[in-house]
Amino acid sequence: MKRVFVNEKWCLGCRLCEYNCAYANSGVKDMIKALKGKNIYPRVRIEGEDGITYAVSCRHCTDPICVKSCISAAISIKDGAVTIDHDKCVGCFTCVLVCPYGAIGRGETGAVQKCELCLENISGYPACVQGCPNRAIVYEER
């Protein structure tokens, strides 16, 4: 299965991946209307220190502990990708606590959110990958 991988040597820390992710998951067709003057809730985020930056996103583990720990069965595996049913999420944040990569966070509605590889979006291709100007984020099989 293809997954998102990050090469921190190439990451500029520009945060364009965050903006492209937030826009792709907003459901709004105009980027300005989707993001301008609003708090954004990207499913990928830039972290770093000492001049090294990198994008943090879900690794779509083969045996994900977040799926096992979800008390409402909101997290499941669909076509190899770990996905969240936001209608089932009760906001207990157990998945946030158990994720070893820190890839799950609070979403705009209070339910948790994480990278779902843009499988439900129009492009069907991760927006963070498309929006990375330095190709530090790639979508490939390894």
Explain this structure.
With 142 residues, this protein is of the alpha+beta class. The protein folds into 2 domains: 1-57 and 117-142, Alpha-Beta Plaits; 61-114, 2-Layer Sandwich (Alpha-Beta Plaits), CATH 3.30.70. It is built from 5 helices and 8 strands. The strands form 4 sheets. It has a two-stranded antiparallel sheet. The protein has a two-stranded antiparallel ribbon with strand order 2-3. It has a two-stranded antiparallel ribbon with strand order 4-5. Strand 6 (105-106) and strand 7 form a beta hairpin. The model has no long low-confidence stretch (mean pLDDT 93).
Q: What topology emerges from the helices and strands here?
A:
Blueprint: E1 3-6, H1 16-24, H2 31-35, E2 45-49, E3 52-56, H3 65-69, E4 75-78, E5 81-84, H4 94-98, E6 105-106, E7 112-113, H5 127-131, E8 137-140
Antiparallel strand pairs: 1-8, 2-3, 4-5, 6-7
Output the radius of gyration.
15 Å
Which class of secondary structure composition applies to the elements? alpha+beta
Order of helices and strands: EHHEEHEEHEEHE
Strand order of the largest sheet: 1-8
Global shape: globular
CATH domain class of the largest domain: Alpha Beta
Strand count = 8
Looking at the overall shape, the CATH architecture of the largest domain is: 2-Layer Sandwich
Uncertain segments: none
Share in helix: 10-25%
* Assembly of the depicted chains: single chain
Distance between the termini: 8 Å
Strand percentage: 15-25%
